[in-house]
Amino acid sequence: MKRKIVSEKFQELFGTPGDFYFSPGRVNLIGEHTDYNGGFVLPGAIDKGMLACIKENGTDKIRAFAVDLNEYEEFGMEEADKPEQSWARYIFGVVREITKRGGKVKGFDTAFSGDVPLGAGLSSSAALESTYAFALNEIFGLGIDKFELAKIGQATEHNYCGVKCGIMDQFASVFGKEGHLIRLDCRSLEYEYVPFDPVGYKVVLIDSVVKHELASSAYNKRRESCETVVKAIQKRHPEVELLRDADMNMLAEVKGEVSAEDYMRAEYVIEEIQRLLDACAALKRGDYKTVGEKMYGTHHGMSKLYEVSCEELDFLNDIAKECGVTGSRVMGGGFGGCTINLVPEDKYDMFIDKAVKEFTHKFGKEPKVYPVRIGNGSRKL
């Protein structure tokens, strides 16, 4: 459906057909606040994303139309040409980052649209960056490998959109593979595809519609807690560079030397890294019951130890438990956003019905429901 709308708009604006490219948003099944501690994450690309129609235009200008916003921008490709509109900066940033790496991009026309819900923590911005990085690489025959395409998206966020994100979102968008999640080592960037084919289950996100603002001061404070604990552990174990290198015994040794709060934060991270590894082992066995238990463990840790949940997310997690949902947890940095739920098919309708009704009754606003399937990464359609 979106393709038809984008195609018609492109034809109307530029009088010619173009080529279609798509990149997905992502979910992260388990592994939260592990990235900056050198741990692992377990994302998967989803069946929702960003779709762009693109064609070279023989000029040194980019003419871009955001279908969903009904906005048009035209801009050059030099540093001084940075566009006003925030959405246009993603496209501009990708072009600049390719140029910095020696790639030659010429002017092009484009129209794009997405079905990744904005602000739900599904990485709509990474999907947009990945779509253009992948497309421009193909159209202009630049020969950039997929790894570098993900880094181009990340650098766009850092240098043109003011967000110091990790690489998980762009990585999942570019490298996604149907029927698999990606176990990404955040320190070495080594990755492994882990089978994810939950027959008899559905994956659904329930959006608390609490503004997903990574309360940046709270986020920074948690990073500082982790660093403080690492410093304390290093006195006895100089080989420990990040919490990923520590275990619960090492943490116990420094209990009297760090604050109760710092101890709790570190406890969550060390346990979460182990939970992710246990979940991967369970997935390889097809043991979704254990995967679900690990997800509940993550939610408890994020709520009680890392303290990044909120009343709405805890409420949704409790309803999931009551309904016999296999696994449920807050997804993303916390302070709002979605829960991700692994739901037996025979309990799905009952769970959604109860969650929507009771949440609306309690909080006076209706949560949003996003069923997702794990799909492939960036591609030409």
UniProtKB/TrEMBL annotation:
In terms of domain of life, where is this protein from?
Bacteria
Q: Does the keyword Nucleotide-binding apply?
A: yes
Residues forming coiled coils: none
* Annotated ranges, domain GHMP kinase N-terminal: 90-177
Tell whether Oxidoreductase is among the UniProt keywords: no
Q: Where is the GHMP kinase C-terminal domain?
A: 281-346
Cross-referenced PROSITE patterns, in alphabetical order? GALACTOKINASE, GHMP_KINASES_ATP
- A single GO molecular function term of this UniProt record: galactokinase activity
Name the EC number(s): 2.7.1.6
- Keywords per UniProt: ATP-binding, Carbohydrate metabolism, Galactose metabolism, Kinase, Nucleotide-binding, Transferase
Q: Which InterPro entries match?
A: Galactokinase (IPR000705), Galactokinase_CS (IPR019741), GalKase_N (IPR019539), GHMP_kinase_C_dom (IPR013750), GHMP_kinase_C_sf (IPR036554), GHMP_kinase_N_dom (IPR006204), GHMP_knse_ATP-bd_CS (IPR006203), Mevalonate/galactokinase (IPR006206)
What the entry lists under Pfam families is as follows: GalKase_gal_bdg (PF10509), GHMP_kinases_C (PF08544), GHMP_kinases_N (PF00288)
Give the Galactokinase N-terminal domain ranges.
Answer: 8-55
Q: Which family does it belong to?
A: Belongs to the GHMP kinase family. GalK subfamily.
Protein name (database record): Galactokinase
Q: What organism, scientifically named, is this protein from?
A: Coprobacter tertius
Gene field: galK
